What we know:
- This protein is an alpha+beta fold.
- It is built from two helices and 18 strands.
- Strands 5, 6, 9, 13 and 16 form a five-stranded antiparallel β-sheet that branches. It has a three-stranded antiparallel β-sheet with strand order 10-11-12, with no helix packed on it.
Amino acid sequence: MALNLQSIYVLASGSSRAMEQLDTISNNLTNVNTSGFKKLLLKEMSQRIEKNGGDSNHLFVFPRFEDTPVVDIQGSLKISENPLDFAIDGKGFFVIESKGEQYLTRNGHFFIDSEGYLVDSKGNYVLDSADKKIFLDYKKSISVGEDGVIFQEQQEVAKLKIVANNRIEAVGDSYYKGVGDEIEAEYKVLQGYVESSNVNPIKEMTEMIVTQRRFEIYGNLIKSLDTLEQKTNEIGKA
Length: 238
């Protein structure tokens, strides 16, 4: 591959990574007010084509996508005084069931549906420690201990299922899947609180400006190389 084409390929790869970074930042900013949302981070890696002989082999290094890990750090806790709002202070996730699949969430803004089951804002069932739906009597008061045990009129009803993994991945709508090893959940459940997103909007906006400049630099360099290529061809024809 000619040296100039290698350069354009490297710059085009960098431009693509900048676009992916902008998409990730935009998604973080969109969810800055979503309860329990965890920031996503775009990771890149350097890729070198091995079979690109000669000295130019060492020039053909380009950035490529590696991963979008979830930044699983605590969001701030806000008082809501809603008895069906639960927040986790520490490590762990609530477990909900949707279409037969179990997902993790830190969004503890729950409701009681028309059949009396505890559900999240999308109508998915909140599970107890025995993987069962949690039935509640909406006429009775509800209290929740720091260990996640739910009481109604002094009677234990269920214990919230809370699990932790050393690595999770986002599956959309503030739901997550554990993809690493399960670890001990160390937490306190707080009733009448909700956990805010852990996205810092000021930092994200700063990152967006920096990434936008990076994208523009790649674009300008590609244009410059194209202009140089045209000039070189014109000289060759003279």
